[in-house]
Amino acid sequence: MIENIDLSLVDWSRAQFALTAVYHWLFVPLTLGLSFILAIMETIYVKTGNEEWRQITRFWMTLFGINFAIGIATGIILEFEFGTNWSNYSWFVGDIFGTPLAVEGILAFFLESTFVAVMFFGWNKVSKKFHLVSTWLVAVGATLSALWILVANAWMQHPVGMIFNPETARNEMVNFWAVLFNQVAVDKFLHTVSSGFLLASMFVLGISAWYLISKREELLAKRSILIAGVFGLLSSLLVAFTGDQSARTVSKIQPVKFASMEAMYEGKTNAGLIAFGILKDTEKKIGDKTIKEFAFKIQIPGLLSVLTGGDKDSYVQGLKDHISGNEKLGITSTPEKMQRGKFAMDVLTSYKRARLINDTAQISAIKGVFKEQDFRDKYFRYFGYASVDKPEDVIPNVAVSFYSFHLMVVLGFLFIMIFSVALYLLFKGTLSDNKWFLWIALLSIPLPYIASELGWLLTEIGRQPWIIQDMMTVSQAVSQISTGSVITTFILFAVLFTGLLISEVSILLKQIKTGPKH
Amino acid sequence: MTAMISQLFLQHYWWIIVSILASSLVFLMFVQGGQSLIYSLPENDIQKTMIINALGRKWEFTFTTLVIFGGAFFASFPLFYATSFGGAYWVWIAILFSFTIQAIAYEFRSKPDNVLGIKTFDLFLFLNGSIGPFLIGVAVGTFFTGAMFTLNMMNQVHWATQWYGLEALLNIRNLALGFAVLFLARVNGLLYLINTLDNEVLFKRSVKGLIANSILFLFFFIFFVISLLFSKGFAADPITGTITIEKFKYLHNFIQMPVVLILFLAGVVSVLCGIGITIFRKRVSGIWFSGAGTILAVFSLFLVAGFNGTSFYPSLFDLQSSLTIRNASSSLFTLKTMMYVSFIIPIVVVYIWYAWKAINNNRITEEEMKSDEHKY
User: Fold this and answer.
1) How far is A457 from chain B (nearest CA, A)?
2) ipTM confidence score
3) In chain A, what are the domain boundaries?
4) Count of structural domains, chain B
5) pLDDT averaged over 10-residue windows placed end to end, chain A, 518 residues
6) Of A14, A70, A290, A471, which is most buried, counting CB atoms within 10 Å of its CB?
7) Does A163 contact B at CB distance below 8 Å?
8) Which pTM was predicted?
């Protein structure tokens, strides 16, 4: 589709998008979770009329505002980068992908931006109840915006509800509900939003712990820990549950990604679940890619088969099954998919040529081919493989996929423990005496950030080389602009985002040190 | 009933929605216009704080409208989104950059330990206020003057210059529209501040500034409109879609769509009324006339750009690659789905109005800025 793709352009475009996404995701989860924590706190204030709850709400609201602004700043860049840096993608799937983005704007962004102004400035201007409703609407707006962008991302992992139109050379939506209720979208929404709740809870818990260590603002700290502890524990359990569900879905829908995150080259029955493992390079290769093995691992025998297939005799597919194919399991080999993809591409090119010379008979014949279910299922679904050079190129970075997944899981269990202990000590009345735990809570603040970013690393790197699974590679999707332009904007954004992050952290630290206004 | 809705109807429907968003955006850029005045309008720091806080309570509306303008274009006319953003790279990146630095400036500027200092954040506000409206005006100018791109048979864009959109700055008509939008934003910014701030000194200084900015706005606006009416345009054949150059195309559009012409004239008159009642009658409600006028005038200009068989994004490099609302739109199914989504817009407008009134019930005073309330 694109002649002479400049790989450095692709890499820099990826780097710029990754930079923006990583920075954006440093701020969004806190907005997602803290908005609900604020709403809960303010509800207690309105119900009880207790002024101290008002102060507590307003203190966390100040921190929320600082974080909210920078999340918006990075978000606008992200939305428009689909066009500026991935214009071929934007056309190829814009008919489907644009809709969730527009719905996100109309349904969620206005809700958020309108009521956030009431939330900040309305304390003495509107009634208590109107203010409370505004705070809840900000939380609902933030969650709704997460829903729609995650629906869009889920579609990239598992494209559904569309049909290819050779006339326009793009995919067109035919079933909105299939896009919205895509299994990946449901899993992703629940997992991502609950991880935001968890992150915000840890943020509140950690800062409150610091107040207890410093022996100040004890009432604020203990009340905040109560809310954060309960909200955090429920969220962390939901994160674990939805994470498990997500992994099962990945094993069915993106088996190559799943095999990479388990570093499983050979498929097998009675596959063990790796609880901990260290990978090393070997002499063995698939094509020009080095196979990795475990230098060390702790595994629970048979559990991976049980988790993915229901019993230990279930077969878990390995990377080699997908490269070489597995006739018994009905898995088509990658070289075969590449041939079918090229065939689909040739049919499309023939159509376009027929259009150019206005060969009506040929146009009508090829249109008919595109309508055949057999052509769609056996050939066009592998359209993206037409631009894959070597079969092994469809294997993502195994080490990154494996480590990001496993580290995220370990951290997930750690969070459940931390919130459980916090609540136990709080109810026992000994929280302030257990300085060791308060320090753990404080030092744990960065951990959900790390886990959250690892989740996105796995999602996006695990999908490589695809921008849309099996349909379009990242290289095909890139805007044809000069590499120099993208390098320049990458540097600009890197400097700007880093400067803003430093500024934000510094402001947050100062506000925390100052504490609430009494 | 829905089965009877044709793709052509929905293409027009969505162009109207995009035009409403664009015109609302231009009106809401009074925030940017106000930001461009933060060095010249106030006499002292407290007045500057009042101005920034008056604007700061509305900045999210402008920002969100810009984001939704982009989102709606993506969903309804994805070929424009792919072509313009992916080709006129530098113009859009500069616009985005200016809005990014705005988003944090309000919240961060007066917070202690903000590292970059209040002067830097105020400079961010000024830069966004000046560059944002100007470049948006220049970018919209290319809807009438054309851009340098070609599309291949798979509808993938190739930009024909190494300037990736910056070449639009060499066209005097684009520049005129850029400056017209900038000075209109400043006019609306002044009218908004007059309406919102309770301060005699700022009122007098704003009225003085209004005279100068109105003259500059009118100069660039009249230049642009006259050049538009007498310029060639890009006509699309309704059957074949073939693009041809037509003399006086935009003048013809106004004449052939009299309702649009009436809307345009009503808009211009309303803007002038808003300015007039403020300067001559010292009224504070000028923003509502000027705001409504801005929306009407910009809305009608967008209709002139896209309706009546006109290419709304012409290609100067390859005429037949030019975009029309017919060849750049989403599929019938997507446009229909989006139409249902658009039914929510009136509800959105109602709650925005309600929240706006709730916050702007009382005018901002110096005393309020000295209190402990949340402020920028």
Assistant:
1) 24
2) 0.91
3) 7-254+396-514, 270-395
4) 1
5) 70 95 95 96 96 94 92 88 92 87 84 89 88 95 90 93 91 92 95 97 97 94 96 97 94 94 93 92 91 92 89 91 90 95 94 90 92 92 94 95 96 97 95 94 97 96 94 93 94 95 95 86
6) A70
7) no
8) 0.91
